[in-house]
Each structure stands twice: as structure tokens, then as C-alpha cells.
Amino acid sequence: MNLRTFLSLAAIATVTLSLAACGGGGSSSSTGSSGPAPAGDAATYQVTGSLTGLAAGKSITLLGNGQPVVVSQNGVFQISAALPAGAAYTVTVGTQPQGETCVVTNGAGVIDTSNVVDVTVTCAATKPQFAYVANTFGNVSAYSIDASTGALTPVPGSPFAAGSDPFSVTVNPAGTFAYVANGGSDNVSTYSIDASTGALTPVPGSPFAAGSNPFSVTVNPAGTFAYVANQGSANVSAYSIDASTGALTPVSGSPFAAGTAPSSVTVNPAGTFAYVANIGSANVSAYSIDASTGALTPIPGSPFAAYASPVSVTVNPAGTFAYVANEGSYVVLAYSIDASTGALTPFPGTPFATGHYPISVTVNPAGTFAYVANQGSANVSAYSIDANTGALTPVPGSPFAAGASPYSVTVNPAGTFAYVANRDSGNVSAYSIDASTGALTPVSGSPFAAGVLPVSIAVAQP
């Protein structure tokens, strides 16, 4: 039975979109055949999948190689047609259904000589989401997020006490623990997150000692290790995380040497490499991560040159590109990542212009857009990401206005909202994200009050 007959028997509404070949990795694990091609024509193949869990009356916008396709009921859907062998494809979620979160499996690959039929999209009721803001004057503001509007409401008990000069906040991937790097007290506050209310409770043993002036904290994708960039001692503290309590234990060999004044640390999605932006030495340190111990080993060629004052580093969800905000040169540097070694190579077109004093860069969960908080120009630069090259192109309307001295930008796990901590205006700007263009629109009620000098923001979904 060919695909057209199968779709007809499935009795569903399908949307067909012809995609240009781009992005994605791996190889197709598809089955089936395309049917014979007309004489003189090259054979082409189709990308289809199945959707489950979508509530009645709702719809989801999928992105096939970045192009939107709306699907409004469960069953088989068609995301592309007329793709030749060797063409790459990606299927990601553009806009989540209201009140639900959908996850794509087998969403990237390369067409071989058969139709792709193994893409799956699974939807479920959205879990509560919470936002956490590190306020320099010693506490953390906590908010519940309205899943429909993106609006923020303080959770009971907020703000929660932290150490001296908290500069950075992050959450583990499961959304069960929060970590705050306290630059003034040289330690890390650790909290358990109440899955119902979002309230923070210090875990036994918190705070945990760090190096001098810890400025950035991150957790690996498995939630097993935490890393802290210590500006004052020019190194990175590494910890194993107790799965039940969230408590931190230094790994053997920690701390690990970095460049001068390391200001940002991140881990790639596979958990195999760590990257540190060194604002004082204008470079990026790169490390391989021991999967069993969490120890860091500098990779060949590290550190890699950056521009003036690299202050923030992030990696796209596919683990193929790294982006560094260079505060002193008003640009974002973009690098390709060697999948086997973790080495960084600037790619053509880099650097990309930003606003004044870019201090934070992030990529949305689908890997289609990047956002940069520009401290000096009080706005946020937004870019679309080329799936093949990683190149950045400003989205229509960019940059978007923020508060005074926007210091940190993040995107919620669903990719529907962006949040910016505005240091000098003491609040948080909240935006809805256009799934097709990446443009930002302030949500009703934005900005939302925070504490004194908010400098970092993270979103959790327990």
C-alpha cells in the first residue's frame, strides 16, 4: 500500500509541506518505499509521523526544517513531500498546544532510499512551570508561570534567602533542585523545589563551598554533575549531585584550571563537553567530561580565541554549535563543535552584531532561534539560526525593548516564552515567542517586579 492510500484510510487531515534540505544529523531509520518515480524523474520520498495525546479541539504547530505545519488531531501526519535521497530533515515543535507539552522522537535524520515513517510526537498535560531570579542583594525571587499567557505570579514565601551577592541561578533538568552561585560568600546555595508550589527549601548541607567569586553555575543534562565558574580563582568547581537530596560533593581533582576571570560555564546536550567563557583572557576553555566522575580534562587546542570580554557561552540543543556573547566588542561569536573532540571552529560569517554590551546568550529548545540580552542598549537581539551552518540572521523587529540593564535571558522548556532579568530596573520582562519568526511580544502585565538588582533567571518544570 502506498503512502497516499494509507493516509486516506487513516481518515485524518494532513498538511503537506515541501521542505528544502537542511539541518539535522544521523541517518534515517525509516521503512517503507516511495513507489516508482516517473520515467526521467529522480526518486523522491516523504517524511511522516504519528501524533498521540493531543486533546480534542487543540492543535500543534510542528516545524519541518523550520517551516510551520499545523496538525489538529491525533494519528498519522505528513510533514514533507518530494525530498530526494540524501536530503536532511528536522521535525521540531514550533507552538505547543495550550495546556499541553509535546515531545518529538526521531525528529532528525537524512533521507536514504525510502519514506520516513518513524517520527513520533507525544503530547501530555503541561506540568507547572516556575521561574527563579537571583537578586544581587541576597535572595531569590520565585514565580509560577501561567502556561497560557506566560505571566508571572510570586510563589508563597518568595523571595527566598541566598548567600551574599548571588550572581547566577540554574535548575536541574528534572526541575527538582535549584542552585545559586553566591559571588560574595564563595559558595553555592542548593534548594529542593516544591513541585506543586515552586517554593524553595535549602537542602541539608547547603550552602556548599566554591572557589573565589563564583559567577556562574550549570548542571549537566543528566542532572548528575554541577559546575561553577569561579571568577576570582580562575577555575571551575565540579560536584557530583546526590540524586535524592540535591546535595553537592566535590569531584576528585576539583577545582579545574580555567582562563582569567571565567564568567560563564555550560555543558553540551550529550553531557560530554563543558565550555567556559573567560572574560579576562578573551577566550573559551573547553573540556571533556568523564562520564563516571564528572572530572574535566582540557581538550586539544583549548582555550579557543574569542573577541573582547566573552561573558556568556551556550550550546544549541543539537550540540553542533556554540555561541559566545562578547560584551566588550558588541558581537556574538559562533563556532562549530567537533562531535568527537569538542573543539571549536569559528564558521563563516561570524561574528554577528548585537546591541551594546551583550551579556547573556541563549538558544530556544528547538534550536531555531537565539536571544541576546544587551545590557548597554536595554534590549534583546533575536536571531533565526540556520540549521545547516548555525549562522544568525536578525528576526523581523529585532532588537526588542527590555528594561534597564537586561542582564540575563532564558526561554521556557516549551519554547513559548522568553524572560529577561533587568538588573537596574528591578524587574523581569516576559515575552511570547512567535513560533515561525522568533519575534518577541510582551505578555500582559510585563514587566514583573523582582528583588534588588536581578541578574540571572532560570525556568523549571518539575
Structure overview:
The chain has 462 residues and is mainly beta. It folds into 2 domains: 123 residues, Immunoglobulin-like (Sandwich), CATH 2.60.40; 332 residues, YVTN repeat-like/Quinoprotein amine dehydrogenase (Methylamine Dehydrogenase, Chain H), CATH 2.130.10.10. Helix content is 2%, strand content 49%. It contains 1 helix and 43 strands. Strands 9, 10, 11, 12 and 43 form a 5-stranded antiparallel β-sheet that branches. A hairpin with a 5-residue loop joins strand 13 and strand 14. The chain is globular and about 65 Å long.
Question: Which key terms come to mind for this protein?
Answer:
462 residues; mainly beta; Immunoglobulin-like; Methylamine Dehydrogenase, Chain H; 2 domains; 5-stranded antiparallel β-sheet; 1 helix; globular
- The structural domain count equals 2
State which percent range the strand residues make up: over 45%
CATH topology type of the largest domain: Methylamine Dehydrogenase, Chain H
Helix content: under 10%
- Can you identify the CATH class of the largest domain? Mainly Beta
Overall average pLDDT: 90
Structural class, by secondary structure, is mainly beta
How many angstroms does the end-to-end distance come to? Answer: 44 Å
Strand runs, count: 43
Q: What is the rounded Rg?
A: 22 Å
CATH architecture of the largest domain: 7 Propeller
Number of helices: 1
Detail the topology: elements first, then pairings.
Blueprint: H1 3-10, E1 44-52, E2 60-64, E3 67-71, E4 75-84, E5 88-95, E6 100-105, E7 108-110, E8 116-125, E9 129-135, E10 139-145, E11 152-154, E12 160-161, E13 166-171, E14 177-182, E15 187-193, E16 200-202, E17 208-209, E18 214-219, E19 225-230, E20 235-241, E21 248-250, E22 256-257, E23 262-267, E24 273-278, E25 283-289, E26 296-298, E27 304-305, E28 310-315, E29 321-326, E30 331-337, E31 344-346, E32 352-353, E33 358-363, E34 369-374, E35 379-385, E36 392-394, E37 400-401, E38 406-411, E39 417-422, E40 427-433, E41 440-442, E42 448-449, E43 454-460
Parallel strand pairs: 1-8
Antiparallel strand pairs: 1-4, 2-3, 2-5, 5-7, 6-8, 9-10, 9-43, 10-11, 10-12, 13-14, 14-15, 15-16, 15-17, 18-19, 19-20, 20-21, 20-22, 23-24, 24-25, 25-26, 25-27, 28-29, 29-30, 30-31, 30-32, 33-34, 34-35, 35-36, 35-37, 38-39, 39-40, 40-41, 40-42
